[in-house]
Amino acid sequence: MTMGGMLLMIIGLAGVVFDWGQAGRVIAVIFMIIGMISVLVSMGIYFWAGMLSTSATVIDCPECGRRTKMLGKTDRCMFCKTILTIDPQYEPLGDNETAATQTAHFEPSREHEHKPH
């Protein structure tokens, strides 16, 4: 979205650069506004994803042993794709699961939480 918005703003400037008169200025304004809205929406999405990442639980994957972040009650290890869950009622769907995929139930550790000073 960011690149698309910037491209729209550049295309809109063609109306001013090639001197298309009053119509070129109107085209430039319209494309600039649409492009800016697209860039601002993209910035909002990146901000939201960044805020989600800061509140994610950091755990050690029981399968590969590497540190990974977990969003929500059920997620996958970002390295080995093992299903990680803290939901004891979780039942994996047979359609999307392979024989190599395992479900690891665990209790997240509290040692990595931020402690106020």
Automatic annotation (TrEMBL):
| Protein name, per record | Zinc-ribbon containing domain-containing protein
Compositional bias of kind Basic and acidic residues: 107-117
The record lists the membrane-crossing segments as: 29-49
- Taxonomic placement: Bacteria, Bacillati, Bacillota, Bacilli, Bacillales
| Pfam families tied to this protein | DUF2614
Tell me which species this is from: Paenibacillus oryzisoli
Q: Which keywords belong to this entry?
A: Cell membrane, Membrane, Transmembrane, Transmembrane helix
Chain spans, region Disordered? 90-117
